[in-house]
Design a protein that fits this description.
Helix 3 (141-158) crosses helix 4 (172-182). Residues 1-20 and 216-233 have low confidence and may be disordered. This protein has 3 domains: 3-12 and 385-517, Sandwich (Jelly Rolls), CATH 2.60.120; 26-234 and 304-379, 3-Layer(aba) Sandwich (Rossmann fold), CATH 3.40.50; 522-657, Immunoglobulin-like (Sandwich). 9% of the residues lie in helices and 29% in strands. A 7-stranded parallel beta sheet has the order 3-4-2-7-10-15-18, with helices on both faces. It has a 6-stranded mixed beta sheet with strand order 29-39-38-31-36-35, with no helix packed on it. A 5-stranded antiparallel beta sheet has the order 1-25-22-27-20, with no helix packed on it. By secondary structure, it is mainly beta.
Amino acid sequence: MKKICALLSLCIACNTYLSSQCDCVYPIIFLHGFTGSADTYSGTITDPDFEAVWGARADIFHAVLNANTDSDIWGSDGVPGNSDDDVLVSFNNLTNDLAAGCIYSINFQNFWNEDENNPEILIDNCSSPSFFDNDSNESAIQKQGYALGHAIEKVLEANPGKEKVLVVGHSMGGLAGREYLQRSVEGTPVWWQNGDHNVKKLITTSTPHRGSNLFGNPWPLKDEKEETTTRDGFPDINSEAVRDLRYSYTCNIIFSCPGVYLFGGDEGDLPFGYWNDDVNCDGDENDIIVGLNASGNPDPWDGTTDNPNMPLPIDVQYTWITSDVGTSGDLVVDLARQYIYDGTEPVPSNGTPYQLTDTLLTDVQHLSVDDELHTIVRAIDEGDYPTFAWTIDMNNTNPYFGICNLRSAMVPDGLPTEDPDWFSFDATGMNDKICISLTPNSDLAGSIDFFGANPGDFTGLATSASITESFSAGNATITLELLPGEYEDGVNYFRIMHTAIGGTSWTNPYKIELVSKLIPDLSCSMTMLPTNVSGVSDLVIFTDVVEVSGATSDGTITLIIPKDAKLTLNFDDAINNIGPFSVDNQDWSYDASNSSFHIFNLDSNIVSNGISILGLNGIYDPQSTSGIVPVTVTILAGSGSEINGLNNVDSETLIFSGQ
């Protein structure tokens, strides 16, 4: 059974400061690049339109990545979490216990007081442990991957019930995202917390996926903007970061060697000049490094894909945002090195181009890509297929919001102006009514499509749903009500589809609310007095209709009693008692239109665990006969929106005699 009805949503149909009324499905973590800070992406996350949807930044995760002269992430004792670690993520004056919210930044532009007995962070301090060490925000990418794992853990701790995050990384920050996801030893992930990566989507902006041989960052100012971000104007070309970002080195006068971090190789082959050669940050400089990328041909740095022996997980969706200012790149990273690909197809891939991974192209220089608001928001879009469905909770405190986005021009299914957003929910063990309430984008038409369980990992737009409701532009809130049997015992999927999307449609979000409601269960009990009569006799019948599930009934409740030529029933809707017994006849009405049944209707609802009593006066005339006859009352199926008919019938036995 499908029921479409208007519902007053808890989420006001207004996009002004929506975050105060609705909730994001997943928090977003923004991660800066080489010499950056928490102010990277400030042009995006402080934009009024962005804040109106996601709210102001909730908090910043701070870490120090180069705390000691020892390059070992876990310090000389090899135990993580001690003050001798080279990467510090907790301090006496800052525990990184974050505030709840939707938007977070990571900041590596820090140092500390160098007191192991009372470690305190010095935020936005660009000091280093010695003259022969780099600043924290110029540290090794493996250190960044380790710190990102802790940041994800802290963000999820701040948002109970949320299972995953989106990671948006600028430049080297995108490689930190890959490092976190890819790095493994004998198949076991190194940086994941509690055995799960907890990442729904990785978005990179102008990231040197295949390396950059430009020393440092020669562009301290952004084009056509006042620079308010504190950046290190003198990048350290001897730093761990520059060492890791290069795709090749000059090993001697004649030959070049591949970038050890990106394409693998021997730490001992690194050229002289870097503060250290400890690429894997384990305290020594004599290891063979497994690169993030596959080795290419003829030169290793010609590799274009992720390393198949340490691949990116395919349960994450990826968007590589690239930029070309007309010189085959963004003036820092060559265009062909800003993403990974196999031939003409971005990777990772499942064989269908642009299904697991897509690309978006912009045209600004390297330090301006993080302020490309509309491009970044396009990448944040919800999953286009069931395998990437965003999981929402039943009965969340606030409804969720979603955004309508132009998709990549290369989408393999549908048009870029069609946005199919997939969601899932877990109904394991439930026997309630489930309501999916949608307040669409008021400017767009579309549909809400319920598929139930197992629609297929990559179900396309041509596949029909089991329940579909279309809406027009300007449509008010609609609700799909699903009864047990219409949804599956387990994970269920639905899709919200908007069409004719424009570049700013995301500024008018839609709202979704998933609510489980107890289903009313009505039970009836008949009492007849007397139950043994002789000759023409008066009797009374009381029928108690009781709600027994704890849910208020919804809609008309109908009782039927079969007509009997020997039994005359009289209904009086003006009385409130029969003898000493109270009745609710004023709430009931009688329908005499049926020749076979007495029909009584209750148009008011019975509250949860409440009762309504129907009282009838009657006369029984045996007509000179004797015998036994049942008098039966039945609650009509579906009354008050109940679905359980097993307790809808009751009867009394009348013994009669003509004497």
